[in-house]
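Appendix B. Extra example for self-study. Work through it before the problem class; the solution is given directly after the inputs so you can check yourself.
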Amino acid sequence: MKELAKELNVSVATVSKALRDSHEISEQTKKTILEAASRLNYTMNPYASSLRNKKSKTIAVILPEVADNFFSLAINGIQSVAERKAYHVLIYLSHEKFLNEISIVNECNSGRVDGILISVTSETTNAEHIKKLLDENIPVVFFDRKIEDIHAASVTTNDYESGYQAALHLIDNGCHNLAFLSISASLSICNKRADGFKAALIEKNINETGNAIVECRGTNAEVYAQIKKLLTGDNPPDGIVASVERLAMTVYLICNETNVSIPDELKVIVFSTMETAPILNPPLSTITQPAFEIGKTAAELLFKGIEKKKYNLADEAIVLPSVLVARTSSLMS
Amino acid sequence: MKELAKELNVSVATVSKALRDSHEISEQTKKTILEAASRLNYTMNPYASSLRNKKSKTIAVILPEVADNFFSLAINGIQSVAERKAYHVLIYLSHEKFLNEISIVNECNSGRVDGILISVTSETTNAEHIKKLLDENIPVVFFDRKIEDIHAASVTTNDYESGYQAALHLIDNGCHNLAFLSISASLSICNKRADGFKAALIEKNINETGNAIVECRGTNAEVYAQIKKLLTGDNPPDGIVASVERLAMTVYLICNETNVSIPDELKVIVFSTMETAPILNPPLSTITQPAFEIGKTAAELLFKGIEKKKYNLADEAIVLPSVLVARTSSLMS
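Solution. Structure tokens for the complete assembly:
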């Protein structure tokens, strides 16, 4: 910054404020300073200090996808912490494929990153690849989706309780034939949400003949066909709990095309953080996860593990509660 | 794969099919093979071959954000090519900050990646950081958002023409007082879309007194306040062209809160690839960009540059057309 200030004949404070995009600095001055920063090959702290500390000053975030609002918000939460720590964030997408995940994890296991935040794929059932990281003392924190049979840090939401509340909410609003749309029979979040859902059905003595848990696997087209068959077949459900955002979007699109009226003929609630829920037709009820907070908390935990080598990271299992927001799609009219 | 097949006493073909998630292989067999792959530290081609070729077998994708559907789809297009080439994809988010972008680009300029796909921030006006990459013969392809004053490969859409068509469409549907919501006065896509928009206004002799281009800058809350002021102030527009998805979502949320009726009082059309456009209330008109194709084409170009050192990448400037999809939000009732 000193070099920049000297070059431009302004104070270091002005440069500092411009680089932080302060409102005290005019747009023209900011532009001049940013251009000089680019010309002089200015690099933020991470790079310079990594040369000093022999740390990569980089963390990896391994995610199944980014199209879901949950993950966009979680990334923002992670980034808010990483920026404060002057760390770079590398995002790897596994695209819900276990083999991609193994390959990415192995790549991270080579000094490229100082720690890893991971939300596993819907195919992941085995934890050997993660155990290898832990064996080499690379800090790992699971967020949202974790593997059950490994002793590692995690930040999740109250999936069982939320699944239970969602089913109860639909039953209270007159549903008798409920379906839970899952994306995987091996994914922790889906199973816990489904278990809570089933507990409510048993408690209320409903749905005893129906096949309440519907696993929606495959390509988008295959999932579309499965849900269409469910909604237009014999004995269609009158209430749906969708485990992830895109399944509810598919339900809406199919109802729109086949003239099934929500909420009159079908009530819908979904685990989602989408901002557009209130402006859908009809407004969509959600179990809103604290996505930003989950990302932020997971990153804070990870940095504890990175900074204090003796910190007992693996014992941390933080659960942040979700909130049921009832809108038109699930309410008795 | 041979090792895996031997270990499990199955054919190499079975392992190969299981790893490609073929429908010919039972779920149980797939699970067994995936678990063995994890246990045996199986790594996909990229890692193994990078040791042989001294290439990183990695490309970087530098993006301003992932919350916008456009970028999710573009990533899928990029990944479809990278997978075929057995390359890893690293995703870096600049969060619309020019300084982040400089820092990320400089980090990539150290043998970590074999090539770079970039969509620049709304603050980026200077190309020095990119010129350094080109000087070191690192292949670079701009996609969607490019910098004008640099001779480099790009894949974009027909922004000027689409802005013109969008304005004409609103005028044809009875609008007399149009506003164009921009996110930056320095961003190529916004300026071209705005220029097309202004050309239509001049051609039709409307809007001569209004300030048709509204730049929406700052935090989400600041953008919200700006748009609310526009919609509830004196002389509110009767037609809006939004340059990016989140601006249209903000318009919808504000109209919902302030009981402004779309399309009766305000007509809206947006540059967006969002799947939920038909299920919003009311269904939202879009200028739909070929996002997946833009990502795929940009990646294909980049690999030409990576594989053929003498390929004249910089001369490539591919334009893929967008499509105007009129829905209720912009139609005369």
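Self-check: Chain B has three domains: 2-42, 51-157+291-321, 159-290+324-330. If your reasoning did not lead you there, revisit section 3.
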